Each structure stands twice: as structure tokens, then as C-alpha cells.
């Protein structure tokens, strides 16, 4: 009997079953915070949301009026879109800022006589994510052996600052090919946003740089926000490498085509001259006979 009772659900408990607080959120977004709970046979007294131990929202279903209350806390602005009941409480925050970052706690309490209490906490950091892929500039579409390649990759503005990396044929570019990155900043959304540029330089030479092969070369620039795996952006560029032998062969082909064209054009001119001379001779002969 004791063993069977141990498998029966404890209807007297009050537990938070899930809390949704995104670890990172963009300052331009509206963020959803949600807390799910199991109150068993308890009566729900209240659900409270805290930011860094300061209460900013309360749901009190036993109150006849003002079941939903909002309290002023710096950096926290609760929108009108919130739904709470005896199973979950979901609220939305808008007008985010750097001050919105912090530890968010959901606290659920039961009513008399036990007044059971359960709470869970999760951290959220507000960032300013890049809105565009990095931009590749300076890389041409065609190169010959011995040419020098100068390429620049520039990130979009963001906070935290982005990490930039070059890849050549899916291999990360060696540091020896890179120049020190340049950085510029602007003030926006209450953050100092950073934009970074990373230049790459190398000679198109298979002996010096074995990653260079005749044909197609794939270059890629990656912009990554630290600690946010989902925020990786990239841009791609393909260029083609030809050898000097190919260039000489192409010039020879062009020269032969040009010679053939000139020969053909010369023949056309001679035919036209012959026609003109014949026409003049026949005209003159006709006039004499007349």
C-alpha cells in the first residue's frame, strides 16, 4: 500500500514547471517572459515577476479588482499584452534598453492555510545585434598568378563588438595574411555600437600560398557575436585564377582571330575595289561607243 501511494501524484505541491526568459534579446525586439506552474489542489494566491529582486508585475486572481498590477522598475516596461491564469503567466516587455538586462524571477504562491511558495530565476542580457551581413570589398573576379589580392571585410554595427574571420576554400586564413582590424563606434539605442573591418592581403602564388589553385577560389568573411552561436553572419565571394600560360594562349587565340578577321576584311575591300573599277571601266566604254 505504501509503495502504491508513492506513485500517486502529490496534489498538495506547488511547483514551477517551466520558465522562459531568453538569455539574449535584441534591443529593438519585444521580449516574452513566461512562467508555467502546477498548483495541485492549492488555490493560486499570486504570481509575481521580479527583476534583480525588484517586483515589477503581479497577478492576484483572488482580488476583486486590480488583478494585474505593474510597478515601476528602471529598464522594465510591461506592454499591455499579458495573459495569466492558474496554469501560466506570460508577459511582454517593450522599449528595451541596457538597463533591461538582469536576473528575472518568477514567484508563485498559494493561498491559506499553507501559503506554499515556488520560484525560479533566469538571466537575460539585452544586446544590439547586427542587422546586415558583413560586406566584402576590393576582391576582384579574376586574377593571374603573381597578382596581389587586397580584400576588406566590414561588419554591421553591433554590441557586443563582432569577431571577424576570413576563410579561403573553407580554411581559416592564417594570421600572417591579415592586417590589424579597424574599429569605429556610434551611440544608438543607449549602447555604444561597434563596427569592425578586417583586411586580408596575399599574393596569388601556389608555391607561397598552397590554398591557391588554378580555377575557382571561394572566399568567405564571417561575423560572429561572442557567446551567441545563433548570431553568425557571413558573406561569400568567388574569384578565378588563371596561369600566364593560359593568358598567352588566350592572347594567341585572340591574335589568330584578329588576323583571320583582318584577312577576311581585306578580301572584302579588294572585291569592292574590283567592282568599283569594273563599273567605271564599263561606264567609260559605254560613253565612248555612244
TrEMBL record:
Q: Identify the PANTHER family for this entry.
A: BEAT PROTEIN, BEATEN PATH VA, ISOFORM A-RELATED
Superkingdom of the source? Eukaryota
Name of the protein in question: CLUMA_CG003039, isoform A
Gene that specifies this protein = putative AGAP000938-PA
The UniProt record lists the Ig-like domain at 9-118
Amino acid at each position: 500500500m505504501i509503495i502504491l501511494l508513492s506513485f500517486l501524484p502529490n496534489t498538495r505541491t506547488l511547483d514551477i514547471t517551466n520558465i522562459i526568459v531568453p538569455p539574449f534579446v535584441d534591443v529593438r525586439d519585444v521580449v516574452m517572459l513566461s512562467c508555467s506552474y502546477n498548483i495541485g489542489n492549492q488555490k493560486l494566491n499570486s504570481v509575481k515577476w521580479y527583476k534583480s529582486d525588484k517586483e515589477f508585475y503581479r497577478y492576484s486572481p483572488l482580488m476583486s479588482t486590480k488583478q494585474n498590477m505593474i510597478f515601476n522598475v528602471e529598464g522594465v516596461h510591461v506592454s499591455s499584452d499579458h495573459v495569466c491564469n492558474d496554469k501560466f503567466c506570460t508577459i511582454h516587455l517593450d522599449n528595451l534598453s541596457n538597463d533591461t538586462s538582469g536576473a528575472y524571477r518568477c514567484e508563485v504562491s498559494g493561498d491559506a492555510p499553507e501559503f506554499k511558495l515556488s520560484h525560479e530565476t533566469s538571466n537575460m542580457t539585452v544586446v544590439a545585434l547586427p542587422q546586415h551581413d558583413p560586406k566584402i570589398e576590393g576582391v576582384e573576379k579574376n586574377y593571374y598568378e603573381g597578382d596581389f589580392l587586397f580584400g576588406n571585410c566590414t561588419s554591421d554595427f553591433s554590441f557586443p563588438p563582432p569577431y571577424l574571420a576570413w576563410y579561403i576554400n573553407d580554411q581559416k586564413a592564417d594570421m600572417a595574411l591579415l592586417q590589424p582590424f579597424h574599429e569605429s563606434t556610434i551611440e544608438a539605442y543607449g549602447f555604444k555600437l561597434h563596427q569592425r573591418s578586417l583586411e586580408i592581403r596575399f599574393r596569388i602564388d601556389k608555391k607561397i600560398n598552397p590554398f591557391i589553385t588554378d580555377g575557382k577560389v571561394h572566399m568567405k568573411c564571417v561575423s560572429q557575436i561572442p557567446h551567441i552561436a545563433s548570431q553568425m553572419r557571413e558573406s561569400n565571394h568567388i574569384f578565378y585564377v588563371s596561369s600566364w600560360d593560359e593568358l598567352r594562349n588566350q592572347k594567341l587565340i585572340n591574335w589568330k582571330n584578329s588576323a583571320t578577321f583582318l584577312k577576311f576584311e581585306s578580301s572584302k575591300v579588294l572585291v569592292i575595289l574590283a567592282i568599283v573599277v569594273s563599273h567605271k571601266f564599263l561606264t567609260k566604254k559605254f560613253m565612248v561607243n555612244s
